[in-house]
Design brief:
The complex is a heterotrimer.
Chain A lengths: L6 H29 L11 H12 L7 E2 L2 E2 L9 H4 L4 H9 L19 H15 L13
Antiparallel strand pairs in A: 1-2
Helix pairs in contact in A: 2-5, 4-5
Chain B lengths: L8 H27 L10 H32 L6 H24 L2 H7 L17 H23 L5 H17 L9 H36 L3 H22 L12 H11 L2 H16 L8 H24 L3 H7 L3 H32 L6 H38 L6 H7 L1 H24 L12
Helix pairs in contact in B: 1-2, 1-16, 2-3, 2-5, 2-13, 3-5, 5-6, 6-7, 7-8, 7-10, 7-13, 8-9, 8-10, 10-11, 11-13, 11-14, 13-14, 14-16
Chain C lengths: L15 H27 L1 H8 L4 H26 L3 H31 L8 H32 L9 H26 L2
Helix pairs in contact in C: 1-5, 1-6, 3-4, 3-6, 4-5, 5-6
The chains are: A mainly alpha, B mainly alpha, C mainly alpha.
């Protein structure tokens, strides 16, 4: 090839290009932070929701389920479970509390986490809060 | 081996392969649990096995990256490692911390582990891939900083090559971005948004720098092609990777509560993400075809070319399949994602670490440029067995994913998740068999290290 | 270096590496423009209506500004081809100044939109308008940085009639930035 192709120019493009796109990404992220209050349902975050998120995390729920499509694909999506269960926190609490300790022969089964009533309520409240986040209409239908 | 301190890479490589075996064993457990729901229940529930599977992957790849750095940095910098003792100390700290964490996952319920390790003080646990107790995370940061110090001091006072500089920026980025693992707000959208700063900017950002640097190092050694040429293209390829990959983060911001313009930004930039992988493949084959010498380590060349091709297929093609927002609307969080994840990680990162091990091991173990013919043959068989198995794992998961998406999300009468899972069980069975074949390939790979050949080694 | 390159009409001016970058950038803008066209086809009314709120005078002025600056860059390359570093520096300075004018006009335009409460999340048209123009805005800044780097090297006598790849490299990038605007302006501001 008769063109000039120097290492220093290649380096400049690597450095310049990276800085350019990092700055662009930061600018977009900044705009996103400004736009989030209208979408992320933050006004419904209560101490109970905070506790629910903690219970959610400390039992590694994401190790089987997805939440807003992220997590493991072994068990149902829970971002919309509150709506799927007919807007009933009691239904969610009842489901979690009633899991058999030894599972169901031959079938997938959720473990029995022995949550207190307070924790059960908090998780349900957390899932209700999650279901009210504006997710651009995802999932496509109630089945998640 | 030109510098005696390169030998510290050896325990790192051994640990990497050992943990790799563990990762695959737990992968098999998960594969079985997909079809035999109560397999090992309640002793090892799915979420625990999965956590072990993914965390072992991350840890062994980190061991591999660190080993690769300890091996190649002195050779590139043309000086001994700044502190081999520190490298060995860090090895044991990292191994013990990693082992304790895995034992913790398996021995007690996760909630107990969280309580014992003081998750209350700084809650960071329970998020995908970042399940490690906060104290382990702090340990990772400490090890990473000390490691960077060791490598950085070696590079600064030695010859500064492009390979070293790119590797160092990649490793620094890895450490810096990991700090976002400590940011865990109650606001789920913010949590998820910055969680991707660790996960996406790792695997589709700084890790690509590490991968490209390692690949460049091995190709320079194996082919004897002019370093200037390889380094120029290294810069161009990683520039493309970052140009597309940084804004490409947007493809994770479609449905998690972030503004909808990300659907455009994410789709446009991530549609271009296959380009750097394609360039890498073309480049690797070009360099090998224009080689100026016949290196006796044929196996390493095979791993290197395989790495470039599989990274393109897994990250490039399978990534593109579901990256456009209108498609992702239906595929998000389905088995399609799992298919892509498996092949991309195998192609880009598993294979690059094995490439490095394959190149370095004969030097480390036998003080020779290549293992004996029989060992190389076994290595190559293991390459084909593992790679073809991974292709099938990916294809079966893709099949499962397409059916899942149709039955659960597209059809006029969408079915519940668990009903759909039963209907696509055949694909999960086939995936499990492909996984067993992969495991046989892995066993063959481990065995290749012990294979004795007829010809004597050309020791120097 | 390769002095033949300048006389060889088949080869690209400047460093080959910048052409890979230019190619990548054009690809991004190209896909973005296609996305715009596709989106517009589905929302013609919204796009036409929102488009009325744009300041076409400012857009047209900026088009002239960028074309002029591109002309200055051409003169800078011509100057260095005859070995005249001083003149090259002057033309580059003029080109950068025109880039500055572009930025100022654009900032007024952005300020106008922001004070009207328009953001990326307003509607699809303004998403595209702000994304494309801001993305291009950043390119103008990058182009100015590149031209400034070339200017400083030219001022210290770093280029000659024989070897001035750097000037051509910077010029190529600047023309790309100009070219993108020449498509962007009619597409987003004018076409109804």
């Amino acid at each position: 090839m008769s063109e000039t192709f120097t290492k220093s120019m290649a380096r400049n493009i690597y450095l310049g290009g990276s800085v350019f796109f990092i700055l662009l990404f930061l600018a977009l992220s900044f705009d996103t932070l400004g736009a989030l209050p209208k979408r992320d349902n933050r006004h419904n975050i209560t101490p109970q929701v905070a506790l629910g998120k903690k219970v959610w995390e400390e039992n590694n729920c994401l190790g089987c389920h997805t939440l807003l499509g992220e997590g493991a694909y072994f068990a149902p999506e829970l971002g919309n479970v509150y709506t799927r269960f007919g807007g009933s926190k009691e239904a969610i609490m009842g489901f979690i509390a009633s899991r058999p300790v030894d599972g169901i022969p031959g079938r997938r089964s959720m473990p029995q986490f022995n949550l207190s009533n307070e924790e059960l309520e908090a998780v349900a409240e957390f899932l209700k809060y999650t279901s009210e986040i504006n997710t651009a209409n995802w999932p496509p239908n109630i089945q998640g | 081996m030109q510098y005696s301190s390169q030998a510290v890479a050896k325990p790192y490589f051994i640990a990497a392969i050992g943990l790799f075996v563990g990762q695959i064993l737990f992968g098999l457990i998960l594969g079985a649990q997909y079809v035999i729901g109560d397999f090992l229940f309640p002793e090892i529930p799915f979420n625990v096995a999965r956590m072990v599977h993914t965390n072992l992957l991350i840890v062994w790849l980190l061991f591999g990256f660190m080993g690769a750095a300890y091996y190649l940095v002195p050779e590139e910098a043309e000086r001994e490692l700044y502190s081999p003792k520190l490298a060995i100390a860090l090895f044991w700290i990292f191994l013990v911390a990693g082992a304790l964490t895995i034992v913790g996952y398996l021995a007690v319920p996760y909630a107990t582990l969280a309580a014992v390790t003081g998750n209350d003080l700084l809650p960071t646990m329970g998020r995908e891939f970042l399940e490690q107790p906060t104290i382990t995370k702090i340990g990772i940061v400490v090890v990473a900083l000390a490691f960077l110090f060791n490598i950085g001091m070696t590079i600064i006072s030695g010859r500064k090559t492009v390979v070293n500089i790119v590797l160092l920026t990649g490793l620094t980025g890895l450490a810096v971005l990991f700090l976002f693992a400590f940011y865990n707000p109650v606001n789920l959208v913010l949590d998820k948004m910055f969680w991707w700063w660790v996960v996406h900017l790792w695997v589709e950002g700084v890790w690509e720098l590490i991968m490209a640097a390692i690949l460049a190092f091995v190709l320079i050694r194996l082919t004897g092609v002019d370093r200037e040429v390889i380094e120029k293209w290294l810069y161009v390829i990683i520039a493309m990777a970052l140009i597309t990959g940084i804004i490409g983060t947007g493809h994770h911001y479609y449905w998690i509560g972030t503004p909808e313009y990300w659907q455009w930004w994410g789709s446009i930039f991530s549609a271009l993400e296959p380009i750097p992988f394609f360039m890498m493949t073309v480049f690797a084959f070009n360099v090998v075809n224009r080689r100026r010498k016949e290196h006796p380590n044929k196996a390493a060349t095979l791993w290197a070319l395989g790495c470039a091709v599989m990274a393109f297929l897994g990250a490039g093609v399978w990534g593109f399949l579901h990256t456009l927002a209108p498609v992702n609307f239906y595929t998000h969080g389905s088995q399609i994602t799992a298919a892509h994840g498996h092949m991309a990680f195998y192609g880009a990162y598993v294979l690059v670490v094995i490439t490095m091990i394959s190149y370095a091991w004969p030097h480390l173990q036998h003080n020779a440029p290549a293992a004996n013919g029989r060992a190389q043959l076994l290595e190559m068989w293991s390459f084909w067995l593992m790679t073809i198995s991974m292709v099938f794992i990916t294809l079966f998961l893709t099949g499962a994913g397409i059916l899942q998406v149709y039955l659960q999300r597209v059809s006029d009468t969408p079915l519940p998740f668990m009903v759909v899972q039963d209907k696509i069980a055949l694909f999960y069975w086939m995936r499990l068999y492909a996984g067993l074949a992969f495991f046989i390939g892995l066993c063959l790979y481990v065995y290749s290290f012990f294979a004795k050949g007829k010809e004597s080694l050309a020791s120097s | 270096m390769d002095t033949l390159a300048q006389h060889d009409n088949d080869s690209l001016p400047g460093d080959f590496a910048i052409w890979i970058f230019i190619f990548a950038e054009l690809l991004v803008f190209g896909v973005f423009f296609l996305a715009y066209a596709f989106s517009r086809a589905n929302n013609v009314e919204l796009f036409n209506e929102s488009q009325m709120q744009l300041d076409r005078i400012a857009g047209a002025a900026n088009t002239l500004v960028l074309i002029t600056s591109s002309y200055f860059v051409v003169r800078a390359v011509a100057a260095i081809r005859t070995g005249n570093s001083t003149r090259c520096v002057h033309w580059l300075l003029a080109a950068i100044a025109m880039g500055g004018v572009f930025l100022v006009i654009k900032l007024f335009e952005f300020g106008d939109k922001f004070s009207a409460g328009i953001s990326l999340s307003t509607n699809t048209f303004f998403m595209f308008y702000l994304s494309l123009t801001f993305f291009h805005f950043m390119h103008v800044i990058l182009g100015m940085v590149i031209l400034a780097a070339v200017l400083f090297k030219a001022r210290s006598g770093g280029y000659s009639a024989q070897e001035h790849t750097g000037v051509e490299t910077g010029a190529s990038y600047w023309h790309m930035v100009d070219l993108v605007w020449l498509i962007l302006f009619p597409l987003v501001y004018v076409i109804h």
